[in-house]
Amino acid sequence: MAFQAALSLPSAISILKEGKSNISLKETGLFGVSVSDLKAEIKSPLLRSQEVGKRKLQVGTIRAQTATTAPAIKQAAPEAKKTLRKGNVIITGASSGLGLATAKALAETGQWNIIMACRNFLKAERAAKSVGMAKENYTVMHLDLASLDSVRQFVDNLRRRDTPIDVLVCNAAVYQPTAKEPSFTAEGFELSVGTNHLGHFLLSRLLLDDLKQSDYPFKRLIIVGSITGNTNTLAGNVPPKANLGDLRGLGGGLNGLNSSSMIDGGDFDGAKAYKDSKVCNMLTMQEFHRRYHEESGITFASLYPGCIATTGLFREHIPLFRLLFPPFQKYITKGYVSEEDAGKRLAQVVSDPSLTKSGVYWSWNKDSASFENQLSKEASDAEKARKLWEISEKLVGLA
Ligand code: LMG
Ligand code: NDP
Ligand code: PMR
User: Fold this and answer.
1) How far apart are CA 212 and CA 263, in angstroms?
2) Which residue has the least CA distance to atom 34 on ligand 2?
3) Are 236 and 271 in contact (CB under 8 A)?
4) Three-state secondary structure string covering the chain
5) Which tens digit of pLDDT belongs to each residue from 221-242?
6) From the CB of 128, is ligand 2 less than 6 Å away?
7) Which one of the ligands is nearest to 230 CA?
């Protein structure tokens, strides 16, 4: 009861291991989530907004974000508009969900050429048409992230076009919550980590030089993360929890033959593999920042756009889940965000001239204002990020 009441509150909720609390949670498990030693602290939105700017170190904090309305996409200043050429942005997985909504939001400004990097060319073309994107604002190009050859081919094709690359958005993902056995990419990596992390890792490493060469006023590499990979949140504590362990499975090639198909070396679990892949996405963004921000001026960022409960991401989940999940997120957790509003958020991270800070994981509060969010201990572990980078380099053939 107390828990449900807390979930229903529109203000931010922090559950702290220690410290002052207003609401105690019962000694109970929620889908296996142990909350016995956790206490809930409800804060007013005012207090919260004062706090977020400070980026305090809050180890062991569990936080639920809520948001329901759309942000405004700030445009470049009018004087800049006159002289600025159209920006070129690549969005992977722009054929549905968040990627498509972002492409649409950017296309509507008329200031961007969107390269929709998709595995299904026809689906992407139809999707762009279905949301009313004008032909002159987008180009569909083939990219299958589950094949490293395809990633390399995509980069070659892109370079042949000779257009500068200003922003890269790594958005595509697969989620296999009901799979009993792992499936694999062309090179034999477990599919979720292979697609969501390794495919994007190779793509962004290859395009780094292109981004560096861009003469646009800002250049950005954005990798979509998620709350469910962050164990400092309630959502991140719904089992199975993300955990990369000592990366022994990844180091062994993630092929399920002579090594585990899971990064931590454990038994296959599709939901965990997805969450692990999101941790990889957030660690990769930070490692890029540490290695390249200063020398290149590129802004590296990640984000949690809100719970977009209606997208194709849940296509493999059981029908009952797909039916109940949107109302659950809308009315109970209040973490729900529409595809359109989520698209505006990601479009903001792409194009808002003020969001230049690098190394940041963006989230939105209930008034749809963006703020720098705190990552979990694992998702901000610099040593793990370095190790992940080095192993990933070997797996994709860069080292
Ligand atoms: C697991 O599936 C897979 O088995 C596992 O392999 C892995 O993939 C994992 O993390 C991924 O998922 C679990 C899955 C299947 O679903 C759930 O865990 C339920 C998730 C969300 C659905 C909750 C529905 C809550 C009911 C609310 C209905 C909407 C009402 C809106 C109206 C509001 C009016 C103001 O299992 C199912 O899909 C079966 C679902 C059975 C639901 C049982 C009820 C769950 C209670 C949830 C507690 C949340 C807080 C209390 C709220 C209770 C409200 C009833
Ligand atoms: P969708 O399933 O709607 O979109 C995923 C996209 O990725 C699709 O366009 C899909 O292509 C594409 N894709 C999948 N595999 C490949 C591949 N091998 N090569 C190229 N493209 C591929 O899901 P969402 O829009 O929800 O997901 C977008 C991003 O948002 C993901 O990174 C996800 O982790 C993140 N996210 C989503 C949340 C949510 O609540 N939905 C919450 C937090 C983060 P196709 O159309 O051909 O299937
Ligand atoms: Mg979760 C504050 C609460 C909150 C938020 C913001 C999310 C987001 N979820 C919350 C709470 C809960 N979820 C609770 C209390 C439960 C138990 C009933 C719960 C369950 C749940 C399931 C079974 N949630 C899920 C699933 C999925 O299969 C989704 C998933 O984990 O995909 C990897 C999911 C999600 N919840 C979210 C978000 C954003 C997801 C979607 C996917 C993602 O991270 O990209």
Assistant:
1) 31
2) 173
3) no
4) CHHHHHHHCCCCEEEECCCCCCEECCCCEECCEECCCCEEEECCHHHHHHHHCCCCCCCCEEEECCCCCCCCCCCCCHHHHHHCCCEEEEEECCCCHHHHHHHHHHHHHCCEEEEEEECCHHHHHHHHHHCCCCHHHEEEEECCCCCHHHHHHHHHHHHHHCCCCCEEEECCCCCCCCCCCCCECCCCCEHHHHHHHHHHHHHHHHHHHHHHHCCCCCCEEEEECCHHHCCCCCHHHCCCCCCCCCCHHHHCCCCCCCCCCCCCCCCCCHHHHHHHHHHHHHHHHHHHHHHHHHHHCCEEEEECCCECCCCHHHCCCCHHHHHHHHHHHHHHHCCECCHHHHHHHHHHHHHCCCCCCCCEEEEECCCCCEEECCCCCHHHCHHHHHHHHHHHHHHCCCC
5) 999 999 999 999 999 999 999 9
6) no
7) 3
Token pair, residue 257, equals 């033959």
To test the ligand 2 pocket, which listed residue (91, 192, 311, 363) has its Cβ within 8 A of the most ligand atoms?
A: 311
For residue 315, pLDDT beyond 60: yes
ipTM: 0.86
- Ligand 3 atom index nearest CA of 306: 39
Residue whose tokens read 């955990």: 243
**Which one-letter amino acid corresponds to residue 321?**
F
Q: For residue range 2-12, list pLDDT tens digits in order.
A: 333 333 323 33
**Quick one: which atom of ligand 3 is closest to the CA of 274?**
33
Tokens of 263: 């990064």
Q: Is the CB of 328 under 6 A from ligand 1?
A: yes
More confident residue, 65 or 48: 65
How many Å lie between the centroid of ligand 2 and the Cα of residue 16? 32
Q: Are 298 and 358 in contact (CB under 8 A)?
A: yes
Q: Are strands 299-303 and 33-34 parallel, antiparallel or unpaired?
A: unpaired
pLDDT digits (tens, 9 = 90+) for 334-357: 999 999 999 999 999 999 999 999
